[in-house]
Specification:
By secondary structure, this protein is α/β, with parallel strands linked by helices. Among the domains are: 60 residues, Oligo-1,6-glucosidase, Domain 2 (Oligo-1,6-glucosidase, domain 2), CATH 3.90.400.10; 71 residues, Golgi alpha-mannosidase II (Immunoglobulin-like). Helices cover 27% and strands 15% of the residues. It contains 18 helices and 20 strands. The strands form 5 sheets. The chain has an 8-stranded parallel β-sheet. A hairpin with a 5-residue loop joins strand 7 and strand 8. Helix 6 runs parallel beside helix 7 and helix 12 runs parallel beside helix 17.
Length: 563
């Protein structure tokens, strides 16, 4: 199946996120790469996805898992080459799969040539003007310029050292010290990013996901910032969601619209204010943005309903489609999260040794899968969630790599637990099939251990174990995605809430198709004369109701049906 024409393919798409280090290893070094992805494209086609989104694949020292970029126009050697990226884009296209890549505009790696030139230059130089270098406060300049807090906890300023060994200026980094922030007031930075977009769009990339999209513009007077962004008038926070940022994305949209078909802009936008959120989705800015509000909500019918109402209302005003996602490379996997007493997600509450009931969490993750796939808009699926993978919470402390863990003083387990390499085979050989491409290319070859260790029980969640198991999460997702593409109501059916159900039951329709999800503790009655398309409960995913008989939906179960 080749790519289908149409500029609006993204409005009802299923997009699969690939974290390159952990998807598939093609050369046996224990790290995922582009050859590994190419070897597994048939799997993605069978799953039914419309596009794959890659977390950064650029040259990087990996201080933050690739989000510290040293060269925007090259593939990191551990992942492959530009030629392999072009081969992947073309091969995926032949299977009807588009490719979206990450762009990280707020910051770069401290090993980027422009930042190295800035460090070597004098205060006030053109090289330093591309970043935020300030003198420190106090008579000797040894006090940080502001008390802004990092997204990874801790401070946001690091002091440089002058050539003579004396302390120098401070530079801003909203994340780690290895990720200095660009000065987006500088025309060089604006032009550089337009050129980066064209570089990748010219190579067939269908769109970009924009990391930390609300943080680019800073108040050059550097006032202190409250930890609560809502303490400032809208658009006037020192570095979050400043009004001038929309000019940046209007210029990006103009570049995206130069192409046929137009390229797509997807924003990572963490904003509680739905009006401010929707501003990024106006017709001359981004096409879509991630719906973090729904992802972070507790497993609760009232919570989900409130988020769905707010999301659909915000998007309706700007004519953009909503997106629905349960996790990503930063977030605790839903199977683990939904099995806890507190099923909501926040970075502040992520801690070691939090009990979870995986059986319960799995049932609930299946319910959430039916809900999100039935909602109007675009579905994002993080690699491994289609297998029902739990969070890897048994990683030894000495193997952890995520800066969120270290900058929390060891309190936060970090994000490595959702980044463990995928299991493709039941046997532990070749890292549970993660490095199987090596064995296929060179029989008898031995693969290096995977970059993060896989649990001993990982094979039970493998693609091999789940492919032909009708009760598996993989089979459930394959059926859901096929229905999303094949049932007309899921493309254009009008959304509406269904009446007559208890408050802890989420019930809505898309045209003639109904989705009812029981998130409560008691069974609820369903219409007797209905035809079920799919049910979350195992092992029977497709059940036809007995005509005329009273029927019930058990707790932590969801169903799609028509009447």
């Amino acid at each position: 199946m080749e790519l289908q024409p149409g500029a609006d393919w993204w409005r009802n798409a299923v997009i699969y996120q690939i974290y390159p280090r952990s998807f598939a290893d093609g050369n046996g070094d224990g790290t995922g790469d582009l050859l590994g992805v190419i070897s597994r494209l048939d799997y993605l086609a069978a799953l039914g996805v419309d596009a794959i989104w890659f977390s950064p694949w650029y040259v990087s020292p990996l201080a933050d898992g690739g989000y510290d970029i040293a060269d925007y126009r090259n593939i990191d050697p551990q992942f492959g080459t530009i030629a392999q990226a072009e081969t992947l884009i073309a091969a995926a296209g032949e299977l009807g799969i588009r490719v979206i890549i990450d762009v990280v505009p707020n910051h770069i790696s401290n090993e980027h040539p422009w930042f190295q030139a800035a460090l070597a230059a004098a205060p006030g130089s053109p090289e330093r003007a591309r970043f935020w270098f300030l003198e420190g406060a106090g008579p000797t300049g040894d006090t940080i310029p502001t008390n802004w807090q990092s997204s990874f906890q801790g401070g946001t300023w690091t002091r440089t050292t002058n050539p003579d060994g004396t302390p120098g200026q401070w530079y801003l980094h909203l994340f780690t010290p290895e990720q200095p922030d660009w000065n987006w007031n500088h025309p060089d930075i604006q032009q550089e990013h337009l050129d980066i977009l064209r570089f990748w769009f010219d190579r067939g990339v269908a769109g970009v996901r924009i990391d930390s999209a609300t943080l680019l513009i800073k108040d050059p007077t550097f006032p202190e910032a409250s930890e609560d962004p809502q303490c400032f008038p809208p658009g006037q926070h020192p570095y979050i969601d400043r009004d001038a940022i929309h000019d940046v994305y209007r210029s990006w949209r103009a570049v995206a619209d130069e192409y046929d078909p137009p390229r797509v802009l997807v924003g990572e936008i963490w904003l509680a204010d739905t009006v401010r959120f929707a501003n990024y989705l106006r017709p001359d800015e981004m096409h879509t943005a991630f719906n973090f509000d729904f992802m972070a909500r507790a497993y609760s019918a009232p919570e989900f309903r409130a988020s769905i109402d707010a999301t659909l209302a915000a998007h309706a005003g700007v004519g953009a489609p909503a997106t629905w996602v349960l996790s990503n490379h930063d977030v605790t996997r839903p199977v683990t999260r939904y099995g806890r007493d507190d099923t909501a997600f926040t970075f502040a509450t992520k801690r070691f040794n939090t009990p979870t009931d995986l059986e319960l969490g799995t049932k609930r993750a299946r319910v959430a899968a039916l809900i999100t796939t039935a909602l109007p808009g675009c579905l994002y699926l993080y690699q491994g969630d289609e297998l029902g993978l739990p969070e890897g919470e048994e990683l030894p402390l000495e193997v952890l790599q995520d800066p969120m863990h270290f900058r929390s003083g060891g309190v936060d387990p970090g994000r490595d637990g959702c980044r463990i390499p995928l299991p493709w085979a039941t046997d532990a050989t070749d890292n549970f099939g993660f490095s199987a491409a090596t064995a296929a290319a060179a029989p008898g070859a031995t693969s290096a251990p995977s970059w993060l260790p896989q649990p001993s029980w990982w094979g039970g969640y493998s693609v091999q174990a789940e492919t032909d198991d009708p009760a598996s999460m993989l089979c459930l997702y394959r059926k859901l995605i096929a229905l999303k593409h094949g049932v007309a109501e899921l493309a254009d059916g009008v959304f509406g809430w269904l009446d007559g159900y208890p408050d802890d039951v989420l019930a809505f329709r898309r045209g003639a198709l109904c989705c009812v999800a029981n998130l409560g503790s008691q069974s609820c009655e369903l219409p007797a004369n209905r035809t079920e398309l799919i049910r979350s409960a195992v092992p029977d995913n497709t059940v036809e109701a007995p005509g005329g008989a009273p029927t019930y939906l058990e707790p932590d179960t969801a169903v799609w049906f028509t009447v």
